[in-house]
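Predict the 3D structure for this chain.
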Amino acid sequence: MPRWLPRAMVLALALYACFQLGSWAFHQLIGLLINVLIAFFLALAIEPAVGRMAARGMRRGLATFLVFFAVLIASAGFVVLLGSMLAGQIVDMVEDFPKYLDSVIRWINDTFHTELSRVEVQDSLLRSDWLRKYVQNSASGVLDVSATVLGGLFKLLTIFLFSFYFAADGPRLRRALCSVLPPAKQTEVLRAWEIAVDKTGGYLYSRGLMALISGIAHYILLEILEVPYAPALAVWVGLVSQFIPTIGTYLAGALPMLIAFTIDPWYALWVLGFVVVYQQFENYVLQPKLTAKTVDIHPAVAFGSVVAGTALLGAVGALIAIPAVATLQAFLGAYVRRYDVTDDPRVQGHHRPRAGRALARMRRLLRDPAAPAGTAAVPETADSGPNEAQQT
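Done. Predicted structure below.
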């Protein structure tokens, strides 16, 4: 056995053990890393407001606290408003449920010539096995729901804490990062940081604009249908559908449908149809145009980045994919050397002029096969004989 073989085997085993340890640690810390990533982009989003307040002499810590406090107050007020509205509507819906059930049973009896009654339907529901199993599973899953809620609150607190430190200690963090880099690299890092702030702000601006348009469109529909709490519902649809990726659209449309159902069940179908149609309009027309203008990336790239981010990180990836790709594209664009494009019709997008001349020559040859290349027969005139031809 060669003397180097035992050392090589030990080194290979050590490298394999380090790889397994690193993989285990990464999978254990993936949740924390995602929270830190969200906190970083959230700090970039509030960086312009904090920077303006700090430029006027306010301490960055106090400015960051005031920005977070304003966001927290606005969010809490919105949640309380929707909670009180939803509670009242649920009470009204429960009280009117027998009336809705009677109307549905009456329609079934008239359509299918049956003899159903509300008492029979209620008894069959209360005595069904699936309802009993559902109640048992719900009772046993209370602890799981509580643990999930507490875990979500802890993650939210972690994100806000990291984002507060990133925003309040932004200059110190940049100084610490630049202190380990040469001067040329320091300029590139600071430029990349500034680009990330601009692109994240543009992304939030586009989302806010789409939320405003969505809220106005749904407010008009709800006012036409005379659904109560139309302004609050419009704000709910605009914010939830834009700032909660993947499932935000369904959550946003469920509440207006529920409120409309308490007025008239057919109104709920109208709301559902409008939500589906508007969502398609937003996905294929509005969102690509606004995102391309504010974040300055191609609509196809924006759509592909959202799909890729969802595949990699789920809802979090869908939320931060566009600003991340826009930042990377803007940063790399500064280091790509560009040249003047040649004046070629294939690049400019119009037809080649020579193709038209060649097509005309082909047509002349088909009319007069005896004519040589570059010549063509012309119609007879009074001065020319029947067999004469004029050279072109």
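The longest helix spans residues 60-112.
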